[in-house]
Amino acid sequence: MDAHVSKSRANEEHHNNEQVDKAAKVKVSQVNLDWQHKGEVFLARWAHDASGHQGRDATYRWARDRGVDLTMDNISQVIHNCETCAAIKQAKRVKPLWYGGRWLKYRYGEAWQIDYITLPQTRQGKRYVLTMVEATTGWLETYPVPHATARNTILGLEKQVLWRHGTPERIESDNGTYFKNGLINT
């Protein structure tokens, strides 16, 4: 406060400072300071996604085998809030997908249907999108590429399906040249 300010002006400034101080005070209970818990939940979510949306025990084992120490409570919380797992549970309650004149009786992640779609070329030079649809839920994964090739198909499957959902038992396609290739048939 300036010593050359009138008393009424000084009182007004003092009053304003008190109001600002009150507004700036935050009760500790209003701030979530549990950063360690948030970090553990983040790790549990990562492990659950990376292990292929498996159940609580399988996610726990997957994380433990990789040196990540998680609690069952955190894993359960993540699974309870997981949209992918909710879609899988709902798909299990409905009739299996009808495809190609037969009912698919696969579990989640065991069967995928893949194809390329063509889009206008992006600034990054990508013109095609590999679409990968999980057969029991309709879950869609995409992988944009500059060219529809066998190599890009393998990369897309590896990054979007294998790493996230595990190795499928069956992959169905329209048998285009990028799907019928020595790289893919091995």
From TrEMBL:
Keywords of this entry: Endonuclease, Hydrolase, Nuclease, Nucleotidyltransferase, RNA-directed DNA polymerase, Transferase
Integrase catalytic domain ranges (all copies): 92-186
Stored PANTHER family: ENDOGENOUS RETROVIRUS GROUP K MEMBER POL PROTEIN (PTHR41694), RNA-DIRECTED DNA POLYMERASE-RELATED (PTHR41694:SF3)
Name of protein: Integrase catalytic domain-containing protein
Pfam families: Integrase_H2C2, rve
GO terms assigned for molecular function: endonuclease activity; hydrolase activity; RNA stem-loop binding; RNA-directed DNA polymerase activity
Transmembrane regions: none
Organism: Hirundo rustica rustica
Superkingdom assignment: Eukaryota
GO biological process: DNA integration
Region (Disordered): 1-23
